[in-house]
Amino acid sequence: MELFPLLLLVLAFVALVVLPARARKRQQNQTQSALALGVPVTMAGGVYATVAGLDDPATIQVEIAPGVVVTYARQAVVQVRQPVVTGPVVDPAVDPVADEWPARDDRPGDGPPGKTL
């Protein structure tokens, strides 16, 4: 009966520290295994980038802007994002011509004659 409080402390430590650390490590391993060339990622500082090189097992090369490639530690990858679909998304149920607003030109001098700005 004297060891019961000590046993409760050990169980609380395992539940509050060890298990969440294991879950974080498992999530990081899944993120690392999902890396491939051209995959969009989010880096630890909030930088959105695209994987440009995976030559070194400790580092990753990412493109943060067109033509700008930087090297990060692999552990800096926080999230692998879904690729962005480029191009217009067309809904066949909506007529694009009927839903357009009339063109409006607010440049000075394009109003009716005699109008002052």
Automatic annotation (TrEMBL):
It is a single-pass membrane protein. SMART domains: YajC. It comes from the Bacteria. Residues 94-117 are annotated as: Disordered. Pfam families: YajC. Keywords: Cell membrane, Membrane, Protein transport, Translocation, Transmembrane, Transmembrane helix, Transport. Its main location: membrane. InterPro entries: Preprotein_translocase_YajC (IPR003849). It is found in: Cell membrane. Belongs to the YajC family. This is Preprotein translocase subunit YajC. It comes from Geodermatophilus maliterrae. The gene is yajC.
